[in-house]
């Protein structure tokens, strides 16, 4: 039996990515990174800023996300996100832009703890890409 | 009867109007394709989002303590209506259809003695509504600068709606927009987004989910996003409908102008002929009398 399942990433504008031959996906779930393999129990969780790693036969792919929801059911993984970038397509300047934005957000004083935490996460992840 | 000169002028003016409507039709057709594509591409997201929420709300054991965005405030005294229209005119019945739908809903609410608040998105809706419901409009948003409907704009509207909800400014929120079916058919829609109305929709499965973190926390994160998503969906549908509606309106206008030119040309030719005949008769009878 194959150990592959289907993953679908959708953002509001379009269906971002559909892949049938995925063997493992690592998502930055809110309470820590979560690896999903075939026949995982049905789960709904949401994402914090981080890197989605998709492992398939054709090689690994890495995506940067800022938020989103994951739903896994019947070997179908759906990831809904509003901001997603393929790391392979992301160049330095784009990354710097995002980093600058995130830093500004993190340095704001009038935000609540949760958004502060999320902004800090963004900064950390973006720095680690370098 | 109009003189030859007048007729000629009218023919030229109708012809130039026809040129404009023809150009507008072609522009609308080009834009329509793009808008339709993005409307169709946007559908999976809002559908998936709805599905997840449906599954979540079924999983909630304690319905009493569900987030207020889902269950509502428990009363329906103040209604907020978000009326989404276009920023440009000349698109047939597009705006009036939404307004008509919205107005009948407004009068129903007012008849029931409930309070009404309106947010208009798009300047055309504001223009049409402010005459009658001017004092009810609390906010008017327009995205004239944005070329295409984008999520960022929708998020702005969504955040505003949520802010007002948290401030207990209203109990029920409904959005009005045109759903794009095809080029000639757009269906005006009234969709209730707060509290979420899932009646008549069956959950896709009875399967139980594992939640991480727990349901409540996910829901309270998800629901505000869903509001923006629904508004974004409405914006996409609206922009496709607007272009479709404009295209068919301009197509009609072009055809009507063509008919008018034909009619005027016939009239012009007839009167020219009549003038020639009259002149000939005058000459002949003048020669005969000599």
Pick out its properties.
heterodimer, A: alpha+beta, ATP Synthase, domain 1, 2 domains, nine-stranded mixed β-sheet, globular, B: 290 residues, alpha/beta, Pyruvate Kinase, Chain: A, domain 1, five-stranded mixed β-sheet, 6 helices
Structural summary, described in words:
The complex is a heterodimer of chains A (130) and B (290). With 130 residues, chain A is an alpha+beta fold. Chain A contains 2 helices and 9 strands; from the N terminus they run βββββββββαα. In chain A, strands 1, 2, 3, 4, 5, 6, 7, 8 and 9 form a 9-stranded mixed sheet that branches. In chain A, strand 1 and strand 2 form a beta hairpin. In chain A, helix 1 packs antiparallel against helix 2 (113-129). The longest helix of chain A is centred in the last third of the chain and has 17 residues, at 113-129. Chain A is globular and about 50 Å long. With 290 residues, chain B is α/β, with parallel strands linked by helices. Chain B has a domain at 44-201 and 208-249: Pyruvate Kinase, Chain: A, domain 1 (3-Layer(aba) Sandwich), CATH 3.40.1380.10. The chains are: A alpha+beta (130), B alpha/beta (290). Strand 4 of chain A pairs parallel with strand 6 of chain B, so a sheet runs across the interface.
CATH level-four homologous superfamily name of the largest domain in chain A: F0F1 ATP synthase delta/epsilon subunit, N-terminal
Strand content of chain A: over 45%
- Helix share bin of chain B: 55-70%
Oligomer: heterodimer
Low-pLDDT runs of chain B: none
Report the C-alpha radius of gyration of chain B, rounded: 28 Å
CA radius of gyration of chain A: 15 Å
Q: How are the strands of the biggest sheet of chain B laid out side by side?
A: 3-2-1-4-5
Low-pLDDT ranges of chain A? none
Q: What fold name stands as the CATH topology of the domain at 44-201 and 208-249 in chain B?
A: Pyruvate Kinase, Chain: A, domain 1
Q: What is the second-level CATH architecture of the largest domain in chain A?
A: Sandwich
Label the CATH architecture of the domain at 44-201 and 208-249 in chain B: 3-Layer(aba) Sandwich
CATH topology of the largest domain in chain A: ATP Synthase, domain 1
| Level-1 CATH class name of the largest domain in chain A | Mainly Beta
